[in-house]
């Protein structure tokens, strides 16, 4: 098979397939491109992980386990498409778009949610119930609230059952219409033996050492039971969600939080899109005016570049942020810069007296090293930013990295393909169409002579 015969059709097929695949991935654009918090509004929280007696060191595995628990809890809130990522070795970034109750989300992220059952002495129950009533009536009553938070737990017996032994939990109501939590056990026989031995004794229920209630065991309990206490309906929903998601392996603390309103995000989106379109339009006009036909071909390649970049955002399910749009626009500049280098080199070859076909071949070949070096250094910088950066910095680095990679491909392959088509079929190949006057053809060689 003669490669020269099939080279152009194969290149055309690759370009066409790229366009069609990108369109398939991008459309409809409202569903394929996910907007970041700064464009659609939401809540961003940075969590610091702290070691505990059970987990003395924060490792990547501990980070991953914590992310899994947080993800299950957030999904229980009904938040669509939360973004949870590692930050460094001991932090986690949580981004919640369109969250309706930020305070509830904060509680979910901070509360370890270790549920424990203990057999509690009756005098401890009496004191704990009194302290719970006093604390609810006056949260500033330090003594009462401290006893509820830690004292009752310390004064009770050993842990006889825990939340990790539960199969599931659901928010519900008792016979009197008060909010409570229904639960099912993984091992009914084990829970049955425990409650059989403790009939007539108070079974204390503690969440993160915090006293909830201590109902008296009236009869053996096997497959299911109830957690009662002074709950509101929202509290039972949150607690049931936490129990189903599991306990956090370590203590967490919110060290940074940021809320963005949807109205502000929409304004920023509109302004950034207009700025991007204006910048892109000026670039297209500049290329067409200065470089004539090659400039128009570069504009067409630039349109393909934008389409491929949108496809990459869609397939990677990355969120488009304001810094991401900035990286996107900056990479467009990189793409234009590559074409400028190539076309200026092409003009120099024409000035040196080469034919149009030779000028295109040599111009692209000799400009490649400069184009590749400039793109490669940007790719390396964007890669380092993505690996070490956090939050919106990652969004900027992501679009800059892939934008530069794609712009390199469109400059040296797509634009070259379009220019080669014109030269091969001798269409619009007059020097004037390439920004060179006929009188200037071979001017370099005449000067040397």
UniProtKB/TrEMBL annotation:
One of its GO terms (cellular component) is plasma membrane. InterPro entries: SecD, SecD/SecF_arch_bac, SecD_1st, SecD_SecF_C, SecD_SecF_C_bact, SecDF_P1_head. Residues 155-250 form the SecDF P1 head subdomain domain. Its main location: membrane. Keywords: Cell membrane, Membrane, Protein transport, Translocation, Transmembrane, Transmembrane helix, Transport. Residues 65-120 form the Protein translocase subunit SecDF P1 domain. GO terms for biological process: intracellular protein transport. Pfam families: SecD_1st (PF21760), SecD_SecF_C (PF02355), SecDF_P1_head (PF22599). It is found in: Cell membrane. Residues 252-418 form the Protein export membrane protein SecD/SecF C-terminal domain. Gene3D superfamilies: 3.30.1360.200, 3.30.70.3400, Multidrug efflux transporter AcrB transmembrane domain (1.20.1640.10). It comes from mine drainage metagenome. The chain crosses the membrane at residues 273-293, 300-319, 325-346, 367-388, 400-419. This is Protein-export membrane protein secD.
């Amino acid at each position: 098979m003669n490669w020269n015969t099939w080279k152009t059709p194969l290149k055309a097929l690759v370009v066409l397939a790229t366009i069609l695949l990108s369109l398939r991935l991008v459309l409809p654009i409202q569903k394929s491109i996910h907007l970041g918090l700064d464009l659609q509004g939401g809540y961003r929280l940075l969590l610091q992980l702290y070691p505990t007696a059970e987990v003395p060191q924060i490792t990547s595995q501990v980070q991953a386990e914590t992310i899994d628990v947080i993800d299950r809890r957030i999904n229980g809130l009904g938040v669509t498409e939360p973004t949870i990522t590692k930050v460094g070795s001991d932090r986690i970034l949580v981004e919640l778009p369109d969250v309706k109750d930020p305070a509830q989300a904060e509680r979910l992220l901070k509360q370890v949610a270790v549920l424990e059952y203990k057999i509690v002495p009756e005098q401890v129950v009496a004191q704990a119930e009194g302290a719970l009533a006093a604390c609810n009536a006056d949260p500033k009553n330090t003594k009462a609230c401290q006893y509820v938070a830690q004292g009752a737990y310390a004064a009770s017996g050993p842990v006889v059952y825990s939340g990790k032994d539960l199969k599931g939990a659901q928010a519900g109501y008792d016979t009197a219409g008060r909010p409570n939590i229904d639960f099912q056990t993984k091992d009914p026989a084990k829970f049955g033996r425990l409650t059989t031995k403790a009939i007539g004794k108070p079974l204390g229920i503690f969440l993160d050492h915090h006293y909830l209630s201590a109902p008296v065991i009236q009869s053996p309990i096997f497959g299911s039971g109830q957690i009662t206490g002074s709950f509101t309906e929202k509290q039972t929903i949150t607690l049931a969600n936490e129990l189903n998601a599991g306990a956090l392996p370590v203590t967490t603390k919110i060290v940074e939080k940021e809320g963005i309103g949807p109205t502000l995000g929409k304004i920023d989106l509109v302004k950034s899109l207009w700025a991007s379109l204006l910048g892109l339009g000026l670039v297209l006009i500049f290329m067409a005016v200065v470089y004539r036909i090659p400039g128009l071909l570069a504009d067409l390649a630039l349109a393909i570049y934008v389409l491929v970049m949108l496809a990459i955002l869609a397939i990677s399910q990355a969120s488009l942020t304001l810094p991401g749009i900035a990286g996107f626009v900056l990479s467009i500049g990189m793409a234009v810069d590559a074409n400028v280098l190539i076309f200026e080199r092409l003009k120099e070859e024409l000035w040196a007296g080469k034919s149009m076909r030779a000028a295109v071949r040599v111009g692209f070949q000799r400009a490649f090293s400069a184009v590749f070096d400039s793109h490669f250094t940007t790719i390396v910088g964007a890669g380092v930013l993505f690996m070490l950066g956090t939050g919106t910095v990652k969004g900027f680095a992501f679009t800059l990295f892939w934008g530069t990679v794609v712009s390199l491909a469109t400059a040296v392959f797509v634009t070259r393909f379009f220019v080669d088509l014109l030269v091969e079929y001798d269409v619009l190949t007059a020097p004037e169409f390439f920004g060179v006057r006929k009188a200037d053809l071979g001017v370099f060689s005449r000067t040397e002579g």
